[in-house]
Specification:
The complex is a heterodimer of chains A (217) and B (270). Chain A is built from eight helices and two strands. With 217 residues, chain A is mainly alpha-helical. By secondary structure, chain B is an alpha/beta fold. At the A-B interface, helix 1, helix 3, helix 5 and helix 7 of A face helix 12 and helix 13 of B. Bound molecules: adenosine-5'-triphosphate and magnesium ion (MG).
Chain lengths: 217, 270
Amino acid sequence: MYNIEVLEEEWKRYKRKKRIPFIIGIAVIVLGIGGTAFFLKNKHDIFKTYTASKQKTVKSDIDIYIDRGIVDVAEKNKNDILIDAPIEIAKVTEEEGTGSYHNGEKKKIHIQVIDASKKKSSFKEIEKRFRMGHDIDDSLFLAKSYYQRKNYKKAEYWALQTNKVNGNVEESWLIFAKAKAKQGHRNEAIHILTVYIRRTHSIEAKVLLDKIKKGKI
Amino acid sequence: MKSRYESAKEVFVDSVDLDDYIELESSLTAYQQLEHSINKPLKMILLFGRPGTGKSILLNRLHDRLKYQKEIYYFDTPAINEKEFFHKIFKVLTKKTLPQNTEVNFSALVNYCKNMRGKREIIIMLDEAQMYSPEMMEKIRLLSDSRAVKFIVSLHKTEDEDLIAKEHFQSRIWEVVELHNASLKDQTTYIHKKLLKKNLFEIANSIKEKNFKLIHKFTKGNYRECNKMMFTIFEICEYYDKNEPSKVRYDRIPKRIIEMAALKLGYINV
Ligand SMILES: Nc1ncnc2c1ncn2[C@@H]1O[C@H](COP(=O)(O)OP(=O)(O)OP(=O)(O)O)[C@@H](O)[C@H]1O
Ligand SMILES: [Mg+2]
């Protein structure tokens, strides 16, 4: 099972963060009241005091944020090591998460364990695991692997499965389109990419579209 | 013995198992619409809905209920290529298997269907139909024109319907049945009944109304998301039960655990 302590930490941060707007709200109200009182007391000094106190709140807010960000990355890295069974290490790849999907920007280390003699069965294993957990890392992995192996029908299928779980994973769109194109359905690939570009203005998708239009894929 | 949470967790493993089918208001409506459409002289029926809204399980249910009255077939995953697909169709129509290295002559197949007209009526349900190429869909349509074979085509729409819902479907299909995400009421029934089926009464009672509301908010009523969510909630409970029993209570599910599950699944972020 995944690391529960990390999850607990995350939850605490989540709670704290949820409280921030509330605390800021209270602070603003208190400052507001204080300010008004001060204003009544001393009309001339008010402008200076007000900006000063305001700056203070904003600054502390930013500080908290930055701190958390750093902790976040470190902890996420620790947490996101995915280990694929069966364990006979043959290759370790490090991937930069595309960042456009999942929990914002996180970096993923995907330890990909492949035993040459059991390649097929470990794929099956991952397929099975996907059906259980619907983790797009699994389906995307399958889509990419099948694409590399030139099994375009399967690549298309797994890209689609990824898309079913999360429609915003750019890679799944790109693989889907590439796989379509490879199977000779150029028009469909073009159509899909056009739709996607209209929605996201993705540069990568535009580059790919251009390639497909020119028949390079 | 299995811990209660382990059993509860397993209830929500995503599967399309008919024994697990639960009668819900929305699925009943869709079921009745489908059944009604089947009896009308239509050629193609479209079952439409977001991923995880229960299309596959509904088709399975339909198959199960009608298999003794009608010639009805369910194709779960799309064929890899046309050749394989027509082998499957050939088998269904003629009840004979074609030798491996032969190919089906499509126009002969169409003629075969035309000759069947009025004698047999075959219903073929195609799940995951977004996987079929336009060329293949065109041939499927030609087969349905014979009026001896009727197709129920199931496909999903995603956020961007265009990716999947190819226009040509719409213009040619005569009847559309749509499945939606569950209402709070349906989702509550769903979770309850699933647990009760496995005799997990106490667990079912430990989920309170406000928990259901929260779960519905996170999952937007999607059945597949709901499964994932419940699975994760019980997975966390199971962990606590084994390792830190002070953090769980059998009579209720702490909101914290639901939020932790939501974090784990990315419904909320820090
Ligand atoms: N009426 C129901 N009774 C029991 N389980 C259901 C019901 N509706 C949906 N489910 C469950 O919800 C999950 C998703 O359903 P299903 O796989 O049928 O969705 P789908 O619409 O076919 O999705 P996709 O478009 O991704 O193929 C399954 O685990 C299924 O068992
Ligand atoms: Mg399905």
